Structures
1.
Amino acid sequence: MSQSSLSFDVTRSANPRSADERAKILEKPGFGLYFTDHMVAVRWDKDTGWHDAAVTPYGPIALDPAAAVLHYGQEIFEGIKAYRHADGSIWTFRPEANGARLQRSARRLALPELPVDIFVESLKQITAVDKDWVSDADEASLYFRPFMIGDEAFLGVRGAHKASFYVIASPAGPYFAKGVAPVAIWLSTDYARAAKGGTGAAKCGGNYAASLLPQQQAQAQGCSQVLFLDPVEGKYLEELGGMNVFLVYGKTNTLVTPALSGSILEGITRESLLQLARDRGMTVEERKVTIDEWKQGVSSGEITEVFACGTAAVITPIGQLKGEGFSVGDLSAPAGEVTMSLRKELTDIQYGRQPDRHGWLVRLDG
Ligand SMILES: *Cc1c(COP(=O)(O)O)cnc(C)c1O
């Protein structure tokens, strides 16, 4: 059932925020705190497929208390940004990759696959009505949160026969308000993020729910994020709660990241950085990496930089790794050169300050 052309019914908000109110929010948006005046909704049911695509005023969703998502967690999501370029135009980064990933997540969670062109069109539709929310401030963006829920009212355990896809949008300031600063992360040995054969490779809310307790433990140890190991041997690096992880071997100009294992989320930032590193002649390795390799490599000086990456923060330098009874790295050391130059290169492409040689950008307005 290919439905590549759904037309969107647009209802403008009767009381959108005033230019003044919006300006005040955009001055200091933080992350995920404020939402634009509109949202996108597209419905699906087993008999008719995708239908009723609409842009509506932003507001609460009415759900039957028996809706599948409330009981069995049938939910998936995406995260993707809009960037304003110097000439005022608005662009996004590799949206087809996010659309394809949403389809893979849908398959795993027994939700319907949204055609990628409807996914991309939904970003264009919300941009058309909320474009004034895309700030031109330095490293500001409009963060889109597309998501899908099973909303059939039925308590039997099976994939819902009704689902809805939504897009909401939230203005985001620079992730590091005071400049990019290395963080400390906590190695969780009590918990795994994902199980073998589980949902680790799907971007689903349930994975995040499972990461919140270890995340609290990390915070209690003065760390900002958790690092998870593989769920079988508890030996190999997987990723952080919501970011992929990279090691830089400075002397050999090598970039290493854990190979996709079936329980690692396939980050689009991860894949893009691997490409940029290859382009600049670095050796790139996607392979198994043990936690001992990290500890020993930092101690011996072979591993010169470590960082995490994802759409929200782009690249976060990791200054220190802590775990039960050990600590490696130096939190007070400045972020590494490779980390910062990859970060600059990627954001320069996203904000149109450097040629988009891989054709990663898609225009959202006009
Ligand atoms: C979204 C996400 C990432 C990063 O993916 P990007 O496409 O780079 O934003 C990494 N790990 C997890 C668990 C995620 O949910």
2.
Amino acid sequence: MRIEKEILRWFEIRRVRPSGSRYNAPVTNTLRRLPAVHRLLESPKLKDALGRWGRTALLEACREALDDARRSIGAGDPPSAAELEEIILAKVLAAEAEAYSAVINATGVLLHTNLGRAPMPTALPQSLHGYLALEYDVRAGRRGQRLAPLREKIARVCKAESAVMVNNNAASLLLILTALTQGRDVIVSRSQLIEIGGSFRLPAVMEAAGCRLVEVGCTNRTHLHDYQAAIGENTAALLVAHQSNFRIVGFTANPSTAELAALAHENGLPLIVDQGSGCLHDLRRWGLPHEETVTDLLDAGSDIVCFSGDKLLGGPQAGIIVGSEAWVMPLGAHPLYRALRPDKTALVLMDRTLRAHEAGRLTDIPLYAMLETSIDSLKRRTGRIGRRLRAQDIPAQGRSTRSTLGGGTTPDETMPGYGLEIAGGQALLDALRQGMPPIIGRMEEDRVVLDLRTVFPEQDGALIEGILAAQR
Ligand SMILES: *Cc1c(COP(=O)(O)O)cnc(C)c1O
């Protein structure tokens, strides 16, 4: 085996006396103090590791650890056998670790874009454990259409005529604009040329789709007559993009959806709305500001509305396009659709999410379960956790917090939350993040704040252990 040979060769080098250089002599002596690989492998811990992770992984870790030791010679004492053992074990563990580790989200941001936006239910549907009728009509016993079983359900939940699902909302816009507006003009207000985290920029997507952006109005005010004046022979559509992650307040104006739809239809054009969040319910129910729902936008005359699957819908990453049959149906038949279509995991999880929305079983969706959690229950959990921590001399206190929806929705609005406050500053915040599982909190005036609204109750035990470990 190559690695084994390499390690043996490295140890061969140790036995060769370098040619008398006064710099080499102490280095060689230090190298000599490093244990041999076969010695290392005799330790019970590494023997156990050999059984668990196999020879290749362990020898690779040995090689790296010894390489590191060799490189750092001269910078201090070489590692002892026990230290080498720990280094090697850490390396094997790191190589075996999942690429995307589970974390405890104690930030209070419900749709945290860096932490996977909407959390998924823990139990996977049976259909994801093995084979499933993805493109198979079970009753007829022949090939079926991948999207057909879900298309109607999406349309029903959004009260739309037709629907298409793609990989994410950026893909929705790319598909809509490519299929319907390529080579022609699309009119957008200057207040809506948005950038969303993760390098989504509306003007760039429009360029990629091959349509021409025609900007109208001013940053704070755009009027119906601005759109009217811009409509010409080459116009393909009016496009409205939701100001997801920012607000323009003060002296502002924008025509209503109904006014824009009427203007578009007078000119034989579609009104396309990038709604973004996928809001289906009245957010005032959870103490959040009112936002037009997807259905409101369709009722007001929008021809096509698109949004993300993993924001307020609470589902998997996806882009959903709904609207009138005449505009939406052809999108599923466009060649680009094949490149943007969702995978089976997203389709199955979306089906489950939509069924929960349709049946009004919102708390089956983790996002809505968190929104529905009462302050009283957060206080009770905080009390229990706080008592356990104080019993170990950790000065943790309960305190009110402000949770946010995040994910580019309701940017300036927060909702009441509750959680823990622990003295310890940045050092504690870092130690929590580097624990297993990582605990992601936030700092407020030198204190670590852990918002329990985004921590699932079943994670409370791990949270306590993580805090204890970080304080050690
Ligand atoms: C979030 C968002 C997008 C991007 O959606 P992805 O699903 O992340 O691709 C586009 N437009 C608006 C208005 C958004 O809020």
3.
Amino acid sequence: MDKAALAGRYERTKAAIPAGVKLIAVSKTRTVEEIKALYDLGQRAFGENYPQELRDKQPLLPADIEWHFIGHLQGNKVKYIAPFVHLVHGVDSEKLLGQLNTRAGAAGRELAVLLQVHIAREETKHGFLPDELRALFTGGSLQARWPSLRFRGLMGMATLTDDREQVRREFEALAALKHELAATGMVPADAFSELSMGMSGDLDEALKAGSTMVRIGTAIFGERK
Ligand SMILES: *Cc1c(COP(=O)(O)O)cnc(C)c1O
């Protein structure tokens, strides 16, 4: 590992992100040594996609790391991460809400979540369709239905395309949907404030559309193998 190169990429990434926007360093597939090197440069929020990988790495790294689960989560894997994870970004079904609520309750903690919205024109991406979320929000207070969960906002992934205008439109639609849902009164509007959007390839568009959390892997750690 080239620590000087890592430090350089980290500094450039931080310089591109305004104050008030949270940088989550996406460390999927990276070794414990690479993560520790970035930790030593001051980074504390890390994002992982695979529950078992996160479960295995977490005890080997400093306890004050804030772990974000950003991938697609299967219900039977919730138990691996529910005891310690800081924020679950990719909640994409009502069933998963129930499983997270149960496991958080069993672990005696409140679990912060973001609802993932399918904004891309790609079948492979996960998430609620906007109308599915609207329907979810007509069923009464989310907090009352899933008392161990804390609803913090929305997450989305834009289409992988060179069409910057399309990416911008997708992020803007996500931002508009967050405002719309916050106004329904089914979540505490002041707490439903996060918009997790933006990765290495679409950071600028996400920031312009009002992202509050960016998930950056490649631009910090280099290309994944
Ligand atoms: C891998 C991944 C990222 C980071 O992608 P980069 O292009 O490496 O910045 C962000 N979000 C999710 C959900 C990911 O799976």
4.
Amino acid sequence: MIPNINYNNLKDSYLFAGIAKKTKAYLEANPGTHLYRMGIGDVSLPLCSAVIEELHRAVDDQAVKGTFHGYMPECGADFLRKAIADYYRGRKISLSDDEVFVSSGASDELGDILDIFGHDKTVMIMEPAYPAYVDANIIAGNRIIRLSAGEDNGFLPSPAEIPTEAWGKADLIYICSPNNPTGAVFSKTALQAWIDYANQTDAVIIFDAAYEAFIEEEAIPHSIYELTGARTCAVEICSLSKTAGFTGTRCGYTVIPHDLERGGMNLNKMWVRNRTTKTNGVSYIIQRGAAAVFTERGQQEIHENIKVYKENANVLMEALDAVGITYYGGKNAPYIWMKCPGGMGSWEFFDKLLNEIHVVGTPGEGFGSCGEGYFRFSTFGSPKDTVEAAKRLKALLENN
Ligand SMILES: *Cc1c(COP(=O)(O)O)cnc(C)c1O
């Protein structure tokens, strides 16, 4: 018996392992040093009180015969599917409740969704990219084509840059906006170009909207369905992880419009079939907590938390502005993607920050080779540490 040989094609996830190894070695050599951890892609603030109260209430429901819930519907509880669809409808996007699928998080879905496309597809990934896109497709045995983003396109590649003849046609296109790691965001015009391209070429866009709640600018689309033609070419995957601090609580959602068909097959129906086969739904308790996010109070409270992260972003951006460093993101995303000073490599800069100012960030090269020479700061850390890290960073860059 030979198991899935595609696993042999995975590279070691050296990015976060490499960071962990280097910081551990530093702490062993310099015990007791306080490190300013600006690398984590995890939130640090607790769940808001609207969610906590609802979780408690739901636990109590499970204690009483009349309110107890057993198996939940595989595609999501009606109350949560409606709450999410209402959230979209509030933004003038018309979705029916059964176009929304409740999930245990976006990472699960970004890979699981490949089930409905088959495992011999060509997948376009814009790099620098969230590492899971690449790995999930390697495991599925898909062919990956990488579209490099860089300063010349503002980290926002356009379909015009695709060397079509050399590559053949992409079946799937992953787009993440606001982007992790670069913080870049697609304007309506730029995103429309991808929608038109996908519709023309019969491709399907997997739109990762994990950071939509961080968008500040009025004109930036929160959802791909704000644009014309997206209902016939796009799946949207979102998560409450970064929006509402659900990284350890686990809940997300996936939107598949009824209009999305390929080869005479309806992708919404296929996903219903997939979920009813492969899941037994998300926990009742968690779905109740998730529904609280979409209430008026929940929205207000999660945005208070997001404001804290945005203040962290402001502190870092002020430091970089003061020393004239080029960076992306920070405004509509919880990440700042800076250019390493003096043409330094991203791991070289990592070592310098760790050794000289005890700040830990994420080397851009770990998100794809075109990320070399860049560095990612997360704004999810504590405000106190962020202020000190920004001060140290500014002093270090001033002296270079
Ligand atoms: C954090 C993150 C997610 C969310 O993943 P979950 O599994 O829902 O926690 C999805 N996409 C990107 C790009 C992310 O950075």
